[in-house]
Amino acid sequence: METQQQQMLVQLFRNERQALHRYACFRTGNAEDAHDAVQEALYKLLTYNGEVKNMRAYLYRTVANACTDLLRNQEKARNYETDYLALQDTEPTAPQPEVYRAVAAALRTLPDEQAEVIRLRFHANMSFAEIADLLQLPLPTVKSRLLYGMEKLRKSLHQKF
Predict the structure, then answer these.
(1) What is the spatial distance between Cα 125 and Cα 118, in angstroms, rounded to a whole number?
(2) CATH at residue 111
(3) How far apart are the C-alpha atoms of 63 and 71, rounded to whole Å?
(4) In total, how many domains does the chain have?
(5) pTM exceeds 0.85
(6) Which keywords does UniProt give here (predicted)?
(7) Span 121-140, pLDDT tens digits
């Protein structure tokens, strides 16, 4: 029998499904692995019986952990180019493939802690407070990682465009 908390997590999962796929895609490098990680996270959500204080943060942390587990268990080297546009709704404002690839490549050059904050802020649409809670970091640390990461991205992309 599902608890009220599990029902709320499943509803949140449904509402966040596309954002979770995009986030997982950036974490894993491809759509298939992202799908597997999101499905694994859903399974963990359905079988977890503990108390959850911040459901959205818990949901994204579960997906992040599933991505990490998936990548850790893979033995072959990864090509981190991803088919991001396949995960997006077709919108007139969708980035051009070469722009996306440049941003994805620039993100891969950042330290992991900066890239993670940028992904959570812009791809998962999380607030600074949610990111701080999720990563268990002080709020000023989250803001500085975003600031330094964005500055590095700006410099890297300015050289290319």
Answers:
(1) 10
(2) 1.10.10.10
(3) 12
(4) 2
(5) no
(6) DNA-binding, Sigma factor, Transcription, Transcription regulation
(7) 888 888 899 899 889 999 99
